[in-house]
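Researcher: Here's a chain I'd like modeled. Treat it as a single chain, no partners, no ligands.
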Amino acid sequence: MTLVLFLLNEYIFRKINLTGEWVTTIKIEKTSYKPFENLTVEYKIHLIQKGYELSGSGEKIKDIKPDGTQTVFLRENRVILEVDGYFERKYFARNKIYLNINEEGRKRETRATYFLKFQNHNDLQGTFISTAADASGTILMKKS
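Model: Modeled as a single isolated chain. Structure tokens:
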């Protein structure tokens, strides 16, 4: 029985490796600050997975306004992120990922929480909430 469980765990229900670079796109759908409404923000996030724990860092790459106008941030002007979280393994449902993001903004520090599910091994999709203008919306992460 132990051998069967081991084989199932290691070969059938394999743990997915989240370590790597993720291009992350959030779309702000609700906010207390009207200029942020429908704003799309792109980040590059680097994750390291240790068991079921996740940590990492990232940078804000660009803002895309609803009219399509883009603001691309040069390296010296990028906002830095610190990331920690965990991977919740599900055997009979979709695996879930929870990430806490600390963003050292230009004016103040903000926090966000990402609630993600796997679409496939390289795509995560879900929702987020943030203390930046009480924002919330959708998120898509693609492993590059």
